[in-house]
Design goal:
Layout lengths: L4 H13 L3 H19 L3 H6 L1 H20 L5 H4 L8
């Protein structure tokens, strides 16, 4: 399994927040969504449209799923917080 910068960053967040890397990835996607809605002038208007909001959340969910699925045999550890608290 190749460890990328994104993996290292998610593990860093998980250790600091004492949560699993999978949950850290979900929280990162929520933070990116909030930043997108807050900083772009028309983003809040776009996110109010249900079709655009659904596409946005499906894209974020797909990114989280691909990251989790790429862990192979370590998928269980990626979803547990106790492994990363040491």
């Amino acid at each position: 399994m190749r460890v990328t910068f994104v993996d290292r960053f998610l593990i860093f967040l998980a250790i600091k927040l004492r949560i699993s890397p999978l949950m850290a990835h979900v929280l990162l996607m929520v933070a990116i969504t909030a930043l997108f809605a807050g900083m772009a002038p028309d983003a809040a208007v776009l996110l109010r449209r249900l079709d655009y909001l659904a596409i946005w959340f499906l894209t974020c969910a797909f990114g989280v799923f691909v990251t989790w699925f790429s862990k192979g045999e370590h998928r269980g550890a990626w979803a547990r917080a106790d492994v990363w608290r040491e």
